[in-house]
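Database export, one record per block. Field names are fixed; values are copied verbatim from the stored entry.
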Amino acid sequence: MAGFNFDESNDFFNKLKVSEETQQLIKSACYDCHSNETVFPKYAYMQPVGWLLKDHIDDGRKHLNFSEWNTYEKKKKELDQLEHVERPRVSNDIAEARDKGDLSENAE
């Protein structure tokens, strides 16, 4: 399995101040599946075990990746924009079109 390069400035510990004890706990218990710093065991290089392990790690990173911690703030802002600006605007446009009868030809 190949290693990953990542921007350390995005790392969880660079963003939040946590104790050394907490850092060690998170690194030993979580980082292999939830960061770009995975240390693969020897059996990960034997297939199909390696494929299963990679799928598990990819899924873990998808849900939480400590190495990309700083990107979550940007993603949260984008989500807020979609939820509070774009979706209401589109809903209003649809309601307005429906009120004018513009959607009747597409109704089932």
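Remark 1: Residues 7-69 form one domain.
Remark 2: The CA atoms of residues 23 and 61 lie 18 Å apart.
End of record.
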